[in-house]
Amino acid sequence: MNQPPRIDRRTTLKWVLGAAVSLPHLIKVRAASHAAGYGTDPNLKPLYRPGELWPLTLNIGERRSAAALSDIIIPADDNSPSASAVGVVDFIDEWISAPYPDQRQDRPIILEGLADLESRAARRFGKALADLSSNEQRAVCDPICYLPKAAALDRDAAAFFARFRDLTAGAFYTTPQGTQDLGFVGNVALARFDGPPLEVLQRAGLA
Q1: Residues 6+ apart with CB under 8 A from 179
Q2: What is the pLDDT of residues 115-128, one digit of tens each?
Q3: Which is nearest to 105 in space by CA: 29, 35, 167?
Q4: By C-alpha distance, which of 128, 157, 51 is closest to 95?
Q5: Residues 6 or more apart from 75 whose CB is under 8 A from it?
Q6: Cβ atoms 170, 25 nearer than 8 A
Q7: Distance of alpha carbon 79 from alpha carbon 5, whole angstroms
Q8: How far apart are CA 30 and CA 28, in angstroms?
């Protein structure tokens, strides 16, 4: 019996992070008549500059931390730029600055998580996260990068990492560069469709 082909780490990471696009964390468009306590929704048709809709939250140091962490999660490779290069930090800043309940709930998680991450980097290496080498950055993040296996003392930090990872993936894989990296060809007329690739069918046990 033929064994299904092995999938490289980058492809696996891409599939896992790409799945986060479907998670219910993207901005929800709510009817103005149901908005209570924070005014009406903005007109989403025009293009807005960061901070034009509401004051932004992240300071310079926090944005630097967020950029470093987003690039740890989705670094640049031969096929696509890094997360920070396509504006993921702007998205996260807008997200936690928005006046809606879901975003307000995420705000302390992100702010406290970034502060804790910088404390971990400083305690271990005496530097900011952005100034560490790749190996040092991984050493800081490894204990908190997977919530089910995090130690009891690291669970809050791991919950932050999971939320930040979902926001990073959702932001990155909805940019033109991210959809191209996924190989997404939606809304494009196809002359023919040959069905799922054999590799996918094998992994699903259908071939």
Answers
A1: 173, 186
A2: 999 999 999 999 99
A3: 167
A4: 51
A5: 82, 83
A6: yes
A7: 21
A8: 6
